[in-house]
Amino acid sequence: MSRRHDLLAPPAIGRYWLLGALVLVLLPHLLRFPLWLAGGCAALLGWRLLHELRGWPLPGRGVRWLLTLLGIGLVLLAFRTVIGRDGGVALLAVMLCLKLLEIRTLRDAMIAIFIGYFLVISGFLFSQSLFMGAYLFAVVLALTAALAALNHPGQQVRDARLYLRTGGALLLQALPLMVVMFLLFPRLSGPLWSMPKGGGSAITGLGDSIRMGTITQLAESAEVAFRVTFDGPLPAADTLYWRGPVLWQTDGRSWQRGGRDMPAPGPDYRPLSGPIRYTVTLEPHDQRWLFALELPTQLPLGEIPGGAFLTTDYQLLSRNDIDRRLRYDIASVLDYRMDELSGRDWERALQLPEESNPRSRELAARWRAGSNDDAAVVQRALRHFAEQPFYYTRTPPALGDDPVDEFMFQSRQGFCEHFAAAFVTLMRAADVPARVVTGYQGGELNELGDYLIIRQSNAHAWAEVWLDGRGWVRVDPTAAIPPERVVTNGDTARFRSTGFIAGRSAELTALSQALFKMRHGWDALNNGWNQWVLGFDQARQARVLRALGLQDQSWRRLITLMVALLATLLGLIALILLLRRPRQRDPVLRLYQRFCQRLERSSLARRPDEGPRTFAARVIKNRPELDKSVSEITALYEALRYGRNADEEQLAELKRQVAEFRP
After folding, report:
1. Which of 97, 416, 418, 523 is catalytic?
2. Measured between alpha carbons, how far is residue 249 from residues 38, 477, 546 in Å?
3. CB atoms within 10 A of CB 514
4. Best CA proximity match to 458, nearest among 201, 228, 198
5. 614-622: which pairs have CB atoms within 8 A and are 24 or more residues apart?
């Protein structure tokens, strides 16, 4: 591109396309900005739009410098930095909006286009969902169409389909290159249980501690925690307990894990059933927790960056925080027995603070006095929850200094953490070793994809008690509450089934069934996107390469092969473009060539070195009677081909005169 061409003013139609495409680029970023920063960017976009529509003057250099300093200051105020993901992308977005106020030449417009492409890439730093991928692809198409509109020879053509076809053709030509790079480029090796929102509210989710009685409103989160695909049949609903942090230590109100997470020397258990195998696709949550059914026997060591291990209380942990989506294969035994409990764990499982919750201690002592059988004491406690007027609710009252006593004898309203913490307190007071376990329970079966969806709303707390001859036994006191005393209807099925398993959807209305299937269809598409695009890691790449007959390829060989294939594809594309018969798509040029062909048939052929005016002068000199028609056609052609104010009426007039021209 010549320097003279760079300094030309971009055509009006190209400027409109550019402005529209950049609005689409900026939209997802502006939705993440603070309102005042997004409003400032919108004001700059509006200024440029008013310049195009109403002729508002663009700011001078001094005003632009002040706006630039103000923009940098606003980004620093919002993000405390201009480096990193949030601050860096915000600064780039602000600079792009400011760039719109100084676009006067084609070179300025091209710079804005390239910044727009870069901002498209940065969008994947915030979301890699299928919806975001489809949206950003549409944005790339719009940017490429704007690129075509800015550089089209007939710069006043207003046919949007022409520019979209051009942009689509360029993207289709790039598609084979993208596939080769995706397949061959070497691969390089969360939510809290009670997230405070003010006023004693929280959302459902998982954390490594609970504090009983401080949450008075629990809102449900439908965010996906992980998805699970089983190798065989779906296990029974009452076995779907996805183990997370195990809480041992209490001060009478809160429960924490206590101590360090130490790897277990080896699972000390006797399996009573065969293992089940399944695959977990875990969403990032910035913690170390991995989830598995009780009890994991085959660890996903090679699939977790840094490795994973099983703790002494049988929680599966990664050695690094989970900051990206992970997919791992694992096996679990659902029926097992344990023989011994170490002296240290025995003490930990009976720990209670002095003089806390005295009424609950007294109640547990009466149960113990009535039986020496630990299993009988456990059943007595479950009958107490079932027979007394306890209610499951997400809006329980606040509790005071002795939350277990107040819950057991006064409010009798709570959600799973209330029941689990109270039950473990009662068991320890009755000299039955017990601990609180948190994780997820159940799941929602997606019949279209044949996998389980476990959401943050499936977060749950339950208890484990040690019984001689059986080992740690899971007890879920929340499930003892009768269905008529579950205040939130959706929670009735939550603790008793996987929710919408086969046949359950028949209970829904036709409209609800359609919406339900659409929801699962969209989730199945997202899951496929996660598995085959975002989850295309080293292991999956190796499997694809083996299927293609390329075993044990080092990264150097992969890069060499990738470069060779890219060069071959580029050569083929270039060859196709060279061999393809050129087609004149510019109507102005096509009409002028028809005019020249008619003169050529009259022995007045245009020479290669002749411009339109020189050719017209020679024709008029040889055929004076053609002066008017030749001059008018040449003037119309020059106005449409090189002018800035040409319109559709001139094109129609040129078409008419060429059609009537008879030399």
Report:
1. 416
2. 46, 19, 50
3. 11
4. 228
5. none
| Residue among 108, 313, 476, 523 flagged as catalytic | 476
- Look up 384 and say whether it is catalytic: no
Q: Model pTM greater than 0.85? A: no
Nearest partner of 109 among 21, 170, 18, 41, judged by Cα? 18
Report the residue count for the chain: 663
Q: Whole-angstrom Cα distance, residue 477 to residue 383?
A: 10
Structure tokens belonging to residue 243: 């183990």
Distance CA 293, CA 435 (A): 18
DSSP β-bridge partners for residue 327: 281
Residue from 14, 12, 72, 17 nearest 40 by CA: 72
Catalytic residue (one of 460, 491, 520, 523): 460
Placement of tokens 């092969």 in the chain:
561
Q: What is the pLDDT of residues 462-514, one digit of tens each?
A: 999 999 888 899 999 998 998 888 876 455 444 444 443 433 444 456 766 67
Give me the residues of the chain with pLDDT under 70, please: 1-8, 153-158, 187-207, 213-220, 259, 265-267, 301-302, 488-509, 511-513, 516, 530-532, 534-539, 551-553, 581-585, 644-646
Per-residue three-class SS string for 600-639: HCCCCCCCCCCCHHHHHHHHHHHCHHHHHHHHHHHHHHHH
The token duo for 611 is 């411009």
Helices (H), 124-245: 130-151, 160-184
Cis preceding linkage at 575, omega within 30: no
> If we measure between CA atoms, which residue out of 418, 513, 421, 415 comes closest to residue 458?
415
Instruction: Considering only CA atoms, give the Rg of the chain.
Output: 35
CA 509 to chain centre: 31
Q: How far are the Cα atoms of 255, 360, 434 from residue 399, in angstroms, in the given order? A: 15, 15, 23
Q: How many angstroms separate the CA atoms of 501 and 243, rounded?
A: 22
Is-catalytic flag, 596? no
What is the Cα–Cα distance from 270 to 336, expressed in whole angstroms? Answer: 5
CA dihedral of residues 131, 132, 138, 144 (deg, nearest 10):
-160
* C-alpha span between 558 and 570 (Å, rounded): 18
**Centroid of chain to Cα 640:** 47
Active-site residue, 460 included: yes
